[in-house]
Design brief:
heterodimer; A: 253 residues; alpha/beta; Rossmann fold; 4-stranded antiparallel sheet; 10 helices; globular; B: mainly alpha; two-stranded antiparallel ribbon; two-stranded antiparallel sheet; 76% helix
Chain lengths: 253, 328
């Protein structure tokens, strides 16, 4: 059984069909990529899985249970975390605090404990700070822990989003164009980070445009064009697929 | 670290002594009215601290604070007058009632943003004011108002303003501790997350609707308790106090002092109390003056007086470090 399964998803916005009868499967422990030209519906697909939209048709299964129709915060608490194409950090908070917000669904102390500031809760807060620091180290930006997230560089902000996403201890993390705006050195570093995320036991599903990243690390690739899945397979097979070449480079009718 | 602690010890001890000795000094020099004003500062500080949780941390505006203030004041007075519930208990029940009303109001209002939220809460404040002045069976005394009594706790009578001052001091400490815990826990972090980025907060597993309701409820609890303290301090309450003007006063205090701090709330309350006292004769123009203060502060001191002071201090510290050649 696949970890995440989307079957025959269709989403319409008024008269426009953004995603049309698309399906995908993500195996546990793999890196799966979703590629396609601009406006193909990749992010819409992500928004569907993470609960921002509810699909008009089709079903999404996570560990065999249906999750379509659930709210974002429920899906996050259920073990699916995500990052955003347009960086969505908590801009006035420090890097460390951003990661600590990520812990939210896993905090054991109840609201009442927080109000009273019991010893257990205070102890947990101290542990959370240490663990948040570990996540910052994991993505390699521990020096910036005390900086306001707005003042970080673009690449650092992307990495902070990943650290925050990992903090909720997800089974799968959805990365929406994680290397957009990174330079070559940062991209090489990111490829290593992806491997470390998978080694940690977190499955990765990502949207990406950078073919070097996709072909280098993906186990499986899905290609979306105009809301339709036109191809899927191993990266090297997809690269040769005439439909994919046509979608990316154009071709004769 | 130790050095820093030493630097703070002396001023902290001095402030404690001053706060404890204040009513006796005021009595000795014959400024008994100053003690009453200090009691006002205490109860306003509680209300503004609660508002800081909602406005400063969670980023939600509430212009109907006078409504919660009224629920606390009238609730406690009515419970004591008609049900003979001892005053401290009636104050707690009334503020819990205010907290529940806050949560009920927040549930539908949680979907509103910006000026729509402002309008909805203004409407709430006005509804409460209407109920006070046209109450069923005249239970609130309508336009004539109500007389209230001073509390007594374990035989410790609080009829003198000095003893009420110390009672207020204990309340301030309790509520400040609650606020501290709220801010330094997952609650405070969730509130700040909602303020900074609702979409991302939702994506990070925070139930935005629920936490907005909690923030409103905390604000209503604090304001309600401040209202009940007010009722038993002045001994007489009437609908005139619980108007839109009162809500604007709370907002002005918070913005003037600066949000997301204890010092900001305190500076705002003290400064605005002094302003209010000095323009007491210009009754018709008070709201106008508050409005001018808000506009000036927003333009000139966007972080509030306290926030700007902290900013200045940090800049100074940086400059000093540069001059002494230390690595930052």
């Amino acid at each position: 059984m696949a970890l995440l399964e989307a079957n025959n998803i269709t989403i319409r916005f008024g008269g426009i069909t953004a995603v049309n009868n698309a399906s995908l499967k993500v195996e546990k422990g793999s890196i799966t990529s979703l590629i396609g030209p601009n406006g193909a519906g990749k992010t819409t697909m992500f928004n569907c899985i993470s609960g921002v939209y509810t699909p008009n048709e089709g079903e999404i299964l996570f560990n065999g249970k249906r999750i379509d129709g659930k709210r974002c915060f429920q899906i996050c608490a259920g073990g699916i975390s995500r990052t955003y194409q347009i960086i969505n950090l908590f801009w006035k908070m420090t890097a460390l605090e951003n990661v600590m917000v990520g812990f939210h669904p896993r905090i054991k102390s109840s609201i009442l404990h927080s109000l009273l500031g019991t010893r257990k809760q205070v102890q947990e807060e101290i542990e959370l700070r240490q663990r948040a620091m570990e996540y910052l180290k994991f993505v390699g930006i521990e020096d910036t822990w005390n900086m306001i997230s707005k003042n970080l560089s673009y690449g650092q902000q992307r990495l902070l989003e990943i650290a925050r996403g990992l903090a909720s201890e997800p089974e799968i993390i959805l990365l929406d164009e994680p290397v957009a705006g990174m330079n070559t050195a940062e991209k090489a570093e990111f490829n290593k980070l992806l491997r470390r995320i998978v080694d940690k036991g977190v499955t990765v599903l990502m949207i990406e445009h950078d073919m070097n990243v996709i072909m280098g690390v993906s186990d499986y690739v899905y290609v979306l064009e105009n809301g339709v899945m036109i191809a899927n397979g191993k990266p090297e097979d997809v690269q040769k697929d005439p439909a994919v070449i046509k979608a990316y480079l154009g071709g004769d009718e | 670290m130790l050095q820093r602690k030493k630097n703070y010890l002396l001023p902290a001890a001095g402030a404690t002594v001053l706060v404890l000795a204040f009513p006796f000094l005021a009595n000795a020099f014959g400024y008994t009215y100053a003690i009453t004003l200090a009691c006002y500062v205490q109860l306003y500080f509680i209300a503004v601290s609660g508002y800081d949780v909602l406005f400063g941390y969670c980023g939600q505006i509430n212009m109907g604070l006078a409504g919660f203030y009224a629920i606390g004041a009238y609730g406690s007075a009515i419970l004591n007058e008609y049900c003979n519930i001892p005053i401290i208990l009636s104050m707690i029940i009334a503020s819990v009632a205010s907290c529940v009303v806050g949560a009920i109001l927040a549930y539908p209002c949680g979907k509103l943003q910006f000026h729509f939220l402002t309008l909805a809460t203004i409407a709430f404040g006005n509804i409460i004011n209407q109920i006070l002045s046209h109450s069923p069976g005249g239970i609130t005394g309508n336009f004539n108002g109500m007389y209230t009594q001073r509390p007594s706790l374990f035989g410790f009578d609080m009829t003198s303003t000095t003893s009420y001052y110390f009672f207020g001091l204990v309340c301030v400490i309790i509520f400040a501790v609650i606020k501290y815990h709220v801010v330094h826990s997952k609650l405070g972090r969730a509130f700040s997350a909602i303020r900074d980025n609702v979409k991302a907060a939702d994506g990070m597993g925070i139930n935005v609707r629920l936490y907005k309701v909690i923030a409103f409820a905390i604000c209503a609890l604090f304001t309600g308790f401040a209202g009940s303290m007010y009722a038993h301090l002045v001994g007489f309450i009437s609908p005139d106090t619980f108007t839109q003007k009162q809500s604007v006063l709370f907002l002005t205090m918070l913005i003037f002092g600066g949000t997301t701090s204890f010092g900001g709330s305190l500076i705002g309350v003290v400064a605005l109390m002094l302003v209010t006292e000095s323009i007491r004769t210009l009754t018709g123009y008070q709201t106008l003056i508050y409005g001018v203060i808000i506009i000036l502060v927003v333009i000139l001191l966007p972080k509030g007086v306290f926030g700007e002071l902290i900013g200045l201090k940090n800049r100074f510290a940086k400059k000093n470090r540069k001059h002494s050649g230390e690595v930052v």
